[in-house]
Amino acid sequence: MSTFALAVRDSSTMLRRNLLHVRRYPSLTLNLLLTPVMLLLLFVYIFGDAMSAGLAGGGGRDAYIAYVVPGILLMTIGSTVVGAAVSVAMDKNEGIIARFRTMAIHRGSILVGHVVGSVMQSLASVLLVGAVGLAIGFRSTDATVLEWLAALGLIALFALALTWIAVGMGMASPNAEGASNSATPLILLPLISSAFVPLDSMPGWFRPVAEYQPFTPAIETLRGLLLGTEIGHNGWLAVAWSLALTVLGYRWSTAAFRRDPA
């Protein structure tokens, strides 16, 4: 069997292992999924009318639903990949990764199984949160089929990037609790982005914090694709951030994996 075929076979086995863990222990995924759903309902039904005043042209709660859902969808990815960091840290702390090192399997398949499984979880979570958004009134009537495909591609690429970062955090953490704490910025960064309010409405001293981070261009791009509006330079920035984070997370994760266990 060729090296590539061996890698695919072993990666598929590791993927099945991780998906079985999700099925048997769904509480972690459900807890992480609860945060974006609750924030969506909170900002739409409690703050929606007030927050819509900051949008260009106002528009009330319906306009705010259209504005906030794309941000919540990407926040869902940040919340879901925390599970990947915790899962990797648990495997490392419990000696499972060390045991896999001694087996005749493709070494890269161990991390690939975690990454692919987490990306699949993220996409499933985005679909569930998107269904909640549709149920409360979100509509994407102006987006073309091509824009929908581009939106799905962006979501998948962003999920891949954040997953590799989360895996690196898990490999660098001494235990599951440390991994969960290390991955907290992936949940907090969307809160200080353009997910909930436009950049123009932010104070001048705070706006650069929200503008120069990966979530804001990704959110603006997804919002433009789903609503059929202009995305400007945000599309290139979102792709650049995603590729840079993917490379950084991959190199970080693989370097930590190759390092001799303590």
From TrEMBL:
InterPro entries: ABC2_TM (IPR013525), ABC2_TM_bact-type (IPR047817), ABC_2_transport (IPR000412), Nod_factor_ABC_transporter (IPR051784)
Residues covered by the ABC transmembrane type-2 domain: 27-260
Subcellular compartments: Cell membrane; Membrane
Sequence intervals crossing the membrane: 25-47, 67-90, 111-136, 148-167
Swiss-Prot/TrEMBL keywords: Antibiotic resistance, Cell membrane, Membrane, Transmembrane, Transmembrane helix, Transport
Topology of the protein relative to the lipid bilayer: Multi-pass membrane protein
Signal peptide: none
Keyword Glycoprotein (UniProt): no
Family, as annotated: Belongs to the ABC-2 integral membrane protein family.
Identification of the protein by name: Transport permease protein
